[in-house]
Write a structure and sequence with these properties.
This protein is an alpha/beta fold and 136 residues long. It contains 4 helices and 4 strands; from the N terminus they run E-H-E-H-H-E-E-H. GO terms for molecular function: arsenate reductase (thioredoxin) activity.
Length: 136
């Protein structure tokens, strides 16, 4: 059975949404991806939506919405996206913090950099899961 991975940050509107989209694109064979936060936003970050669509052809507006931690299933792995404030807590067998800067309000280069970093980290996470480097 594939482990469930949650990408979490406070608002679940930008980095965690990008991570969910890229995980579904690059790691669906290895794990199930979810994203959530502790506060809901009316819409997900439209700069993030545009960049992910430009770079990867994925339209996050179709399937993604801001979700609370209580709205997703129990997960085995929790990935904190990097919070300058207190990151939400989600019980999981494996927790790590990717420490990513929030690109919200910054230029496209910052969004592209964030997306590429998330892509690398998602692929590395999938490899670590496949190689049993993460104890579940």
């Amino acid at each position: 059975m594939k482990p469930k991975v949650a990408f979490i940050c406070v608002h679940n509107s930008c980095r965690s949404q990008m991570a969910e989209a890229l995980a579904k694109l690059f790691a669906a064979d290895t794990f199930e991806a979810y994203s959530a936060g502790t506060e809901l936003k009316d819409t997900i970050n439209q700069d993030a939506v545009r960049i992910i669509k430009d770079l990867y052809g994925v339209d996050m507006n179709k399937e993604h919405k801001s979700k609370l931690i209580k709205d997703i299933p129990e997960v085995q792995i929790a990935i904190k996206m990097g919070c300058n404030v207190v990151c939400p807590f989600l019980p999981a067998k494996h927790i790590e913090d990717w420490g990513l800067e929030d690109p919200t309000g910054k230029d496209d280069q910052e969004f592209i950099k964030t997306a590429k970093t998330i892509e690398k980290k998602v692929k590395a996470l999938a490899k670590r899961i496949k190689n049993n480097e993460i104890k579940l």
